[in-house]
Amino acid sequence: MLGEFNLFSWKSKEQQRREDEEYARWAFPYGQEQRNKLVQLMLEIFPKESEATTLIPFLTCKEIYENLRRQEGHEGAVRKMLTNVKKYKRIIRKTEMPIYLALVLADARAGEALNYPTKDEVLAMAKGLQVQYTDME
How far apart (Å, rounded) are the C-alpha atoms in residues 137 and 24? Predict the structure, then answer.
C-alpha cells in the first residue's frame, strides 16, 4: 500500500503543506470567518450547489481577474472576463460569470470587517457589470 505517497507529486509533505497554506492566505486573507461568510453568501445565490461547486468557480474567477487586472487594469479585466467567457466555460458557466465576478469584487471590497453585500446586491451588481461591459461590444 502506498499510503500518503503521491506518484504525481515531487513535493515533500512539508513543501505541499506550505503551498496549501500560502494558497489559503491568498484565497482568504482574513481566515476561516471570511471563507464561511463568502460560502454562505454563495450558497444563498446558488442554493442548488454545494460549497465545493461554488468555491471552485469563485477561486478560478478570482485568480483570472487578478491576473488580467495586473496586465490590463480593472476595466480591461472585467471586459475580457465578460466577453471572452467561452475561454473559461468548463469551470464557469457563461450565465454565472457576471455573478462570480461580482462576488470577487465584493470580496475584495469586504475588507477586514468582512462587510459583504446581500444576495440581491450581488445580483444587481452582476447585472450592472453585464449591461455596462457587454453592451459596449
Answer: 36
